[in-house]
Amino acid sequence: MPKASLEELATQLRAGTLCAASLMADATDRYEQTENRLNAYRNWAGPCAMVQAQAVDRMLQTGMDLGPLMGIPVSIKDLYGVPGLPVYAGTDTAFPDDWQRSGPVVARLLSQAGIVTGKTHTVEFAFGGLGTNPHYETPLNPWSSWDAPRVPGGSSSGAGVSLAQGSALAALGTDTAGSVRIPASFTGQTALKITHGRWSQDGIVPLSPSLDTPGLLARSIVDLAFLFTALDGSARIAARDVGGLRVGVVENVVWDEIDPVVAANTEAAILALEAAGAKVTRVRLPHAEDALDIFRRGGLAAPELRAFLDGNFPDRIARLDPAVMARVMAADDVTASEYLQRRAALSGYGRRALEVFDTVDLLVTPTVAISAPLLADVRDPDAYRLANMLALRNTAIVNLLGWCATTLPTGLDGNGIPTGLQIIAPPRHEELLLAASLGVEAVLGAGPDLLGPPPL
Q1: Which of 35, 96, 137, 219 has its CB surrounded by the most CB atoms within 10 Å?
Q2: Parent domain of 244
Q3: What is the number of other CB atoms lying within 10 angstroms of the CB of residue 329?
Q4: Is 179 a catalytic residue?
C-alpha cells in the first residue's frame, strides 16, 4: 500500500512516475491476500477497475486530465448507485436495476475517472453502529486477533476495512448517526460527516432523509481534505495552526461509561493540543441529553425507514436483520404527531446549542466511548442493543444537532483497537473543520505513523 498522500499520488500520476494500473494492481494484491478473512466487499470490481486504470494511464499520457481523483482507487458503500454494480443496501436481495443510477456524489467521482474498486458491505439499510450483518458475514476489524474477531464499526463497515486492507485509498460512505466516523475510529482511519443538505442524497438508498449525509473516509486528514475538495469543487484547504485555536472539550454525556484507555488517549490528545498552543476550555454542550433522549426512543430514523419500506419494499420487512426489524416494527407506535414533535424539537435544539460556539472555535469529544466489541458478544440481542447505543452516542449528537465533524486516530486501546478524537464544527463550516483537523493531525501525527500497520 503506497505511503504517499493522495495529492502526492496524483502528482506522480501526472508526472508519469506512477501509473494507475500499478495502483490498482497493488489494491488487487491486498484484496486477494486478506479478503477471505476481512470480508470488506459485497461486490469486488477488480477486473473492470483494472481496465479503467489502464485507460486512465493512456489518457494521462496524452495530457488529458479529468480531475484530482483521476486514477485513484476508491471503494463505495453498498447504498450508492454505481452503473453496472448491483445495490443490495445490506439486504438479502438486489434492488431493481434503476437503483444503479449514479447520483451527484458518485457522478463527480466518475467524471474525474476515479477508479471504483467495488461496493463495500453495510449494515442492512445502514441502521446500526457496530457493522454487523446476518445476511452476509460481518466484515472483521483488521486490528482484532484471529481467534477473537471484533466488529469493524458501522454502518459503513466495509469502507473502513477496505482502507485498512489497502484495497482502496479512499472510500465513500454515509452518515446518519456516526456511520463513517465509527468505522473510521475502530479501524484507524479518518472520516468526515458533512452538514446535512450540503451534498445531495440522490442516488443513495435512504435510511433517514432528515439526517442522512454522504460521508468520506480516508487514511489521513491530509487525504480527507484532498478528497473533500475534489468532490465538493471547493478551493484547496490549508492547515490551520492549532496555536490560538479555541478548543472546547465537551464535558457532559460523552464521557459516561467510557473505556478507561479511550478516555486516557483522548485526554493525552487534548494535552498535546494544549501544549502546542491551543486554548482549551471545558464546556457543557446544551441540549445533548435532550437530543439523545429522542434518539434512544427511535428518533427520526425508525419511522422514516418504516415509511420507505412500506412505500417501496413491504415484502422485505419480514426478512430484515432482527436487530433492524425490532426498530422498524417499533416505529408503528410513533404517531404522526410524535414524529413531527421530534423533528421540531431537534431543529430547535440544534439552533439553540449553537451558542456554545460563541466562546470556542471547535468542540472535541472521544469519537466512540468503547472499544470495538467482540463479534461473539453482540450476537446476544441485549448486548447488541447496549453496545450499539454506546457506539453511536457521541457521534449521533452531531447529526441530531445538524452540525459537521471529523474523526482522527489517537492511539490504541487495551484490546489493540484504534481510538479516535471527534472534532465538531457548526453547520456549513467544513472548510474551517478540515483546516483545523489538518492542524490537529500535524500535532498528533497521521494514523499510519501513529498506529503502525494493522495485523491483518
Answers
A1: 219
A2: 6-289+341-451
A3: 13
A4: yes
